[in-house]
Amino acid sequence: MKKVLKQCDGYSLLTVLMILTVISIMGLILMGFTINSSRHVSVNENNIQNKVSADNTIELAMAQIESTIENINSLGIKSETALKEELREQLEGLQHNRCSSENPCTIEFDTVDNGMNVSIKAPIGENGRNVTKTIKISYSTVEEVFQYAVVSNGLSTVEDDDKGNLRLNGASYIEGDVFVRKDIESSNYGKFDYWIGEEYIKTSYPSIKGNLTVLGKYKQGRKDSFTTFKPDPVSLQTYFAVPPYIRETSQEVKSIDVIGLIYKKNVDLSSKTTLKNLTVTRKTPVTLIGNHVITNDLTMEAGSRLIIRDGSLKVNGSADMSGSIELENSMAFQNPAEEKYVFINGYSVINDLNFNGQMFINNSAYVTNNMNVNGTIYVRNNAWVSSFSDNTDGGTMVLVAEGNINLFLNLSFDEPKRLNAFFYSNEDLEISGIISNLKIIGGIYGESITLNAIKTGERGQSQETIPPENSRLSIIYNDDLILNPPQGIPSVDKLSIEEIDLVYD
Fold it and tell me: How far is CA 83 from CA 62, 145, 173, 493, 494, in A?
């Protein structure tokens, strides 16, 4: 019996030793995992810190460059050559003085057409990786407002005032940069106004495929109930169907002095011919040579043709214009056609008109039907825009109004009406894509802006499953506003910054 007990004790001891050995091995393995995990976490934390540090270095350099550009623009240099030379000298100074041992970076620049490409490179830690931001600094003759797809730019000192706000009710689709002086408000309900009130229709959140600058707050909600949110990646993915890239800047967008520009053209034309009235019929084209003044009204029938050669036209009464108006220069060495213009003192109707140039209306205007315009129309009061046909073949129409711009009755079912246009108003601007179906290829500007939209899909299809591009209100920025500006567009002499690329290698 004792022998058997001794054998059992031996087996028990052996078993205990084996268990202790297994526990020790598992402990060593777990300790190894813990050490490796700690090292991995430590490495990840270092990588994140290094990336944040590199990003901060890039942003500090960008802030310095933006400040430099503001200073150069404030000098009022009118010569493109002198402007570029001043830019080169300032960039050379930044190359030597900007980057310090605490924030190491390199700044390189190359001369390109109409400006310079600038590359800012900062190291990500000490492992040989870098982040590089490339921007283009361009010499621009076009006002900065026309570099954006959407600008909501009202200025108010009242906290609860909507001036400067951009409210996106529903699934509007914006492709291009957006500037908001005050608050942006995002909702997944489109607002529909009709004769007995308003209705909110459940749809998707809006889309912004571009840079978004907001000087105020980010808000989301419905109707007049909005709450603030932080523009972090999760929130942006939640409250935008296509989330924007947030661009922080202290730069502001200047408004246009519409009344001042119209006032400058309301002058007595020199060496003029005076007419009491002028009616242009479809059968008989009319050519006016030199400056002309019509003391009463101008009437142009559908399909008519009015040629103004080597001069401008001033109408002291009202105008009803269809057909085509052509501003011509008979000799190549004379000033280009945009130096000539049409000025109308009274109310104007523009119906199915072809026009290249600049027009000033010292009253209100009604614009309708097919508009093949490559030029700028200035309106002293309000403008109504309705029943447009596609105008993608005739350049870009820039409509600049001191008063309201009302877009209505632009009806289409499946395919949107495509308008090559930039609508600028120094009042509030509201556009609907509920019944109307619009694709504005250009941009919009207003004191405050409200966009209402749903999406077009198959019958019975859920709004949330329809692609964002199928919005019934799309605003697509058109580079030709800068690269091939329409005649008469407001101009300046200044430098502007465009972000081209951001690369981590």
Answer: 20, 21, 37, 9, 8
Predicted confidence (pLDDT) at residue 201 exceeds the cutoff of 80: yes
Full residue range of the structural domain in which residue 84 is found: 48-143+490-505
Q: Are 253 and 148 in contact (CB under 8 A)?
A: yes
Task: Kindly indicate the confidence band of residue 62, based on its pLDDT and cuts at 50, 70 and 90.
Answer: confident
Q: What is the mean pLDDT of residues 316-339?
A: 79
State the pLDDT at residue 2.
47
The secondary structure of 193-249, three-state, reads EECCEEEEEECCCCEEECEEEECCCEEEEECCEEEECCCCHHHHHHHCCECCEECCC
The pair phi, psi for residue 347, each rounded to 5°, is -60, 140
Residue 29 belongs to some domain of the structure: no
Tell me how far apart the alpha carbons of residues 499 and 333 are, in angstroms, rounded to a whole number: 38
209-229 CB burial, b ≥16 within 10 A, e <16: bbbbbbbebbbbbeeeebeeb
Q: Is the pLDDT of residue 241 over 90?
A: yes
475 forms beta bridges with 174, 440
390: three-class secondary structure by DSSP: coil
Report the helix count and the strand count for the chain, using DSSP H and E.
5, 36
Q: Please report whether residue 415 resides in a domain.
A: no
Distances in Å between the alpha carbon of 296 and those of 261, 343, 351, 361, 381? Answer: 23, 13, 20, 15, 20
Angle between helices 80-97 and 2-74 (to 10 degrees): 140
3-state secondary structure at position 119:
strand
**Region of poorest pLDDT, from 210-214, 265-269, 399-403, 498-502:** 498-502
Helix (H) or strand (E) holding 28: helix 2-74
Q: Considering only 271-275, 297-301, 318-322, 478-482, which range has the smallest mean pLDDT?
A: 478-482
Name the domain count of the chain: 1
